[in-house]
Amino acid sequence: MSDVFREAERVFDIEVKWLETTLPLNRESFPEAVELLHGSKGKIIVCGMGKSGLVARKIAATMTSTGTPSYFLHPADGIHGDAGILARGDTALVLSKSGDTAEIAALLPVLRSLDIPVVAMVTNENSLLGRFADVVLKLPVMKEACPYNLAPTASTTAMMTLGDALAMAMLNLSGFTPEDFAEVHPGGSLGRKLLMKVSDVMVTRNLPLLSPDTLLPRAIEVMTEHRGLCMAVSGTGQLEGIFVYGDLGRLMKDRANIAELSLGDVMIKNPATARGDGLLALAVQTMEERGITSLVVINENSLPQGIVYLHDALALGF
User: Fold this and answer.
1) Res 65 pLDDT > 90
2) Domains defined along the chain, listed by start
3) What are 210's strand-pairing partners?
4) Three-class secondary structure of residue 294 per DSSP
5) What share of the chain in percent tops pLDDT 70?
C-alpha cells in the first residue's frame, strides 16, 4: 500500500471518529436546536469565519433550498453595515470551533439588541459564544485530520454534517415535498427532472385495453404491438391487471400449452401504477426499484389514462 493511500486512510479514520463522537454529544441539544430554528418567525441567519464561514454558507444554501429561508452573514461584513439584514423574529446559527472569534464576538451584541436567539456550533461551551448561545451544538475536543492540528478539517466535516441534519429535520417538520423542491430549482437538468410530470411523456393514444376473458394468443398479439404491455380492464373500464413480456417468458418456461389460457389467468393483479400529475422522476424511481420498464397511469377511479415507458424517460435524461 502506498504512503499516499495510508494518509487517506488516516484522514478518513479521524473524520469518521469525529462524526461518531459528535452525534452522541448532542442527543439532548439537537432536538432543542431544531425546535428553536424551526420555530423562527423570520429567517435563519447563519454565520461563521474562515473555513467555518464556508461551511456556514453551504448550510444556509441547503436550508434555503429545502424549505427554511436562510441567509449567510459574514461576521466581518456584519459589523461593517451588513447587520442591517437582521430583524426581530430571526434566529441565528453561529459556527465557531473556538467560540472566541473576534468578529463573531463583535456581532453578538447586535444579535442581543434585536432579541435574536442563537444556536451555536462550538467546541468550548464556556467560550464567549457558548455562554451567549441559547442552544449549544457541541463539537468534540479531538485532533484535526491536519497532521499539525492546525487546518480545520474534521471539525468542519462535523459542522457540515450537523448542518445537514438540522436542514433535513426541519424539512421533515415542515412537510417539504419534491414538488416544493422543484419550485426553487427550475433551471437545467435538475429543474427538468423535478418539474416534469408523468402526463408530459405518457402515451395516451390506442391504449392496449382488453377484457380479462381475452385468450392469451390475442393478448400476446396486442402486447407485441404496444411495446410489451397490455392491460386487463373491467366492464366499467377499471384496471384489473397487466401482462408484460417478462411474464410471458416465465409462463412459457413453466407450461407447454398456453393457447387456452385467458388474460385473466395470467395477468399481474394490483400492479404498480402512476398518476398523471405525479413527478416523472418518482415514476422512474419506481420502475428502477422494481426492475420494470413501464407503468400504467390511472386516475382517481382506477381508469387507465396512459402508459409511461422507462425508455422515454431515459431519452429525456432521467
Assistant:
1) no
2) 3-176 (3.40.50.10490), 198-315 (3.10.580.10)
3) 232
4) strand
5) 94
